[in-house]
Structure formats: structure tokens, C-alpha cells
User: Which sequence fits this backbone?
């Protein structure tokens, strides 16, 4: 057992420091929780606000802000124990509050996770897992920016958390049937990225497209702020994957290194493809490559050797690029579904590929550090071929459940609330929806008027294909 997991065995120092508490593990887990939380607040809030057209900056940021707050309250009232509590069904836990003192100050338990038993209180684990649930819904929001009725979104967030997210989390992480069967999802390639990408695409279908002018041209209103948000997302991923072992141990260190190696490799590959095929590097494209590299490594971040992380990064920077720039453009159905930020490509495609690569490249000795059974990828022989098949079946379950649950949730909401904003609001944007604008004033107290103040409409030459739809999609993150 790793030194960081050896609990203090003497008499308790105080009621706040029981014998089972490992201060190092607890400190790291709370730090990892904060890093993942920063990915959403303010990371994705900033990124969404800056990567969209100016008129949607406030609305996009607010959708992320609302989701973060709503998920936390639903999580502690009901959903944590649906995802990590006692079994109700093979794919679902029994919902109950996670608010009682006796529950939160006790030693954390994760059903079936015997290889890395936590040495800190349940309160730490409840918050850590909340940050994953929150970012999943915020990623999903990227598919429906610029047209989803904010009231429909406010209803959708708790319903999707209850009926979709908790099922995937319990099945793969909380001791459900996929976990017991041996499917691997180290830190959310399926539970988070595949789920958000598939559900985002499904939601985009049911909500409907943006107005024609927004689909044809959707330039970011602040690329430098977009980079700031992306930077918070990347750095926060060290907590995302480094916190998955539930301890400050060797596997956590491997996961952090592999995460960054994959992201850097993916950025370089994506940028090279942009230069080769489009003649110039794109900052937006580099951020997309960062995202796919991070999403793709996540299902096996602590289970890959670091040379394998480079392979994962190379595939993450090329396969989603092909799906986004070539397949999307040639597929009439994908062209009709308006996935505003291309979440399907950067999260569903990358997350699925990472899960399958885990079935191929999971290293046996690294698997022993976190998994309570003999596990290996097909590349290492033995039962690796069976592991790859398990990864396929788990992916199919996650895809099917998210398509079905997202569809049913939106159809129920549609009975009470229109899913799409009316056209008059879509033409105006933030001012019509919220009565607020991101950049309300211009010059000496004037209202910003693009006809008077906007230079780019008439002077911009050779615009990036990422902002005018020439590559089959508009902005893709």
C-alpha cells in the first residue's frame, strides 16, 4: 500500500483528526476538487462568454453559472447517493440527502473501490464528485448555446442530472453492473465526455438550430479571454485526473503527467493539420486540440505508460479533427443538427476513442495501483481482448441511455416550456433575454452599434474558417 494511504494508527489527536484520517490525502483531494471546480467556475464561464458572438456572451456565461449552482444543490439533496450510494437497481443507487453531520464526518466509502480506499471524510468525496457532475452539464450546454430557452435550461439541468448523469456514474464508478463486470472509466471519458457529447447532440436536435445569420457567422467576441478560460480548463485537469485515485499516490502522479503530455501532443497535431490543409494555424483550433487531448486521455489517464499518452494525444489531435472538418461536412444529418460548439466531436468522439484505447493500452502493473482485479489492455495479452470488448459494451450502454433519457426529458419539458427562444429574442440576444449586455457601452457612453463602430464587418479579409462555417461547423469546442 502506498505510504500516503497508511492511516495514522495512534490515538486521535482531536475529534477533528480521527485515527483513519490521512491529512495529505485529504488536502490533495480538496485541492483536486477546487481545481475541477475552477474548470467550470470561472473557466468555462469565461470560455463560453468569449467564444460566442457578442450578443450571446451574457446568456452563455449564465447557462454555465446556473448549472454549477443548481447541480450542487441537487447533488447534496438527492443525487450523490443515487450515483455512489446503496444499490437500488444494477445501474442506479438509492437517492437520499448527503447533508447529515453523521454521514459527512464519517470516513468516505466508495462501493466496490477496494484498491484505493479513501482516508478522509465523506464531505470531501461528496464535493469532489459534485465538481464532475457540474462540469458535465456545462459541457453539454455548449451544444445548445445561442438559442435554448433559458427557462427550459433551468428545468433541464436538475432533470438530466437525476435521470441521466447518476445512471452513468453509478454504473461505472459507484459499484453498478458495468463496474462489477470490469469496464474501466478512470476519470470520466464515458461518464462525463461521452455522455455530454451524445446528450449535447441529442439536445441540439430537439431544441432546433440557431437563426440563419448566427449559424453562418458566429465569431468569438474575445479570443484572448477565450484563451484565459481554456488555460484554466487545462490546468484544472490535473485535479480532474489526478484526483481520480482518491489519494495522493503514485497513480495520481502518473495521471497528471499523462494528462498534460496528451494535451500538448494533441495541440501540436491539430495545429499541424490546420497549417497543412488550411494554410494557417488557428488559435481556436489549438484550443480544440487541447480539449480533445484532455478528453481522450481521461478514461485511462493513470493506466497508460507515458509513451502511450503520446499515442493517445496524436490520435486525439487527428481523429476528432477528421470527424469535425471532413465527416461532419459530408454527413447531411450532422449538418442539420446545430451543435453550436461541436461538443459531439471534441467530447463524444474523443471520449469514446479514449475509452477504447484504454481497452488496448491499459498497462497491467499500473492497473494494479487502482483496480481491485487483474486488468490489462489487449496490447499486453492475457484477457486484454475481453477488456476491449467490455469497453465497447460500456460505451454502447452510455450512448443508448443518454440518447433515450435526454430525448424523454426534453419532450416532457416541451409540454410546459418552449425549448427554443422566439425569433425576436434570437435576433437581439442578451438584451432581449436578460436585459443586460456584455459590452453595453462604447466610447463616450454610447450604446455599441456595429454599423457605426464595427470595423471587422467591412475590413476583415480572409476570415478564419472556424468562424464562418466554411469547415462544416462554426466554432467547435
Assistant:
Amino acid at each position: 500500500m502506498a505510504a500516503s494511504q497508511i492511516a495514522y494508527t495512534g490515538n486521535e489527536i482531536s475529534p477533528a483528526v480521527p485515527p483513519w484520517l490521512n491529512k495529505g490525502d485529504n488536502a490533495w483531494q480538496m485541492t483536486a476538487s477546487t481545481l475541477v471546480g475552477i474548470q467550470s467556475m470561472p473557466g468555462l464561464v469565461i470560455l463560453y462568454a468569449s467564444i460566442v458572438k457578442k450578443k450571446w456572451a451574457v446568456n452563455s456565461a449564465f447557462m454555465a453559472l446556473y448549472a454549477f449552482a443548481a447541480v450542487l444543490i441537487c447533488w447534496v439533496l438527492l443525487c450523490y447517493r443515487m450515483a455512489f450510494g446503496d444499490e437500488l437497481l444494477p445501474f442506479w443507487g438509492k437517492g437520499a440527502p448527503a447533508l447529515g453531520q453523521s454521514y459527512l464526518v464519517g470516513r468516505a466509502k466508495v462501493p466496490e473501490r477496494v484498491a484505493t480506499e479513501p482516508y478522509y471524510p465523506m464531505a470531501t468525496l461528496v464535493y469532489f464528485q459534485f465538481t464532475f457532475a457540474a462540469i458535465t452539464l456545462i459541457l453539454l450546454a455548449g451544444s445548445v448555446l445561442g438559442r435554448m430557452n433559458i427557462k427550459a435550461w433551468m428545468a433541464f439541468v436538475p432533470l438530466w442530472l437525476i435521470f441521466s448523469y447518476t445512471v452513468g456514474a453509478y454504473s461505472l464508478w459507484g459499484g453498478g453492473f458495468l463496474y462489477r463486470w470490469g469496464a474501466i472509466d478512470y476519470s470520466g471519458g464515458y461518464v462525463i465526455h461521452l455522455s455530454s457529447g451524445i446528450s449535447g447532440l441529442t439536445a441540439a436536435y430537439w431544441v432546433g438550430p440557431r437563426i440563419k445569420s448566427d449559424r453562418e457567422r458566429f465569431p468569438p467576441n474575445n479570443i484572448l479571454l477565450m484563451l484565459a478560460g481554456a488555460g484554466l480548463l487545462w490546468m484544472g485537469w490535473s485535479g480532474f485526473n489526478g484526483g481520480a485515485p482518491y489519494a495522493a499516490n503514485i497513480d495520481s502522479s502518473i495521471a497528471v503527467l499523462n494528462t498534460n503530455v496528451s494535451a500538448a501532443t494533441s495541440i501540436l497535431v491539430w495545429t499541424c493539420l490546420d497549417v497543412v490543409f488550411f494554410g494557417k494555424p488557428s488559435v481556436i483550433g489549438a484550443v480544440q486540440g487541447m480539449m480533445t487531448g484532455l478528453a481522450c486521455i481521461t478514461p485511462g489517464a493513470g493506466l497508460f505508460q507515458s509513451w502511450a499518452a503520446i499515442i493517445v494525444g496524436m490520435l486525439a489531435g487527428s481523429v476528432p479533427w477528421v470527424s469535425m472538418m471532413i465527416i461532419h461536412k459530408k454527413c447531411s444529418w450532422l449538418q442539420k443538427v446545430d451543435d453550436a460548439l461541436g461538443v459531439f466531436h471534441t467530447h463524444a468522439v474523443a471520449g469514446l476513442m479514449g475509452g477504447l484505447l484504454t481497452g488496448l493500452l491499459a498497462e497491467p502493473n499500473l492497473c494494479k495501483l487502482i483496480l481491485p482485479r487483474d486488468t490489462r489492455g489487449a496490447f499486453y495479452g492475457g484477457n486484454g481482448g475481453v477488456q476491449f470488448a467490455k469497453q465497447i459494451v460500456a460505451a454502447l450502454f452510455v450512448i443508448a441511455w443518454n440518447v433515450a433519457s435526454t430525448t424523454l426529458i426534453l419532450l416532457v419539458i416541451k409540454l410546459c416550456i418552449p425549448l427554443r427562444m422566439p425569433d425576436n429574442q434570437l435576433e437581439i440576444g442578451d438584451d432581449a433575454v436578460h436585459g443586460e449586455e456584455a459590452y453595453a457601452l462604447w466610447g463616450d457612453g454610447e450604446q455599441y452599434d456595429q454599423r457605426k463602430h464595427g470595423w471587422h464587418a467591412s475590413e476583415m479579409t480572409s476570415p478564419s474558417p472556424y468562424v464562418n462555417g466554411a469547415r462544416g461547423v462554426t466554432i467547435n469546442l
Q: What stands out?
A: Residues 1-10, 455-462, 469-477 have pLDDT under 50 and may be disordered.
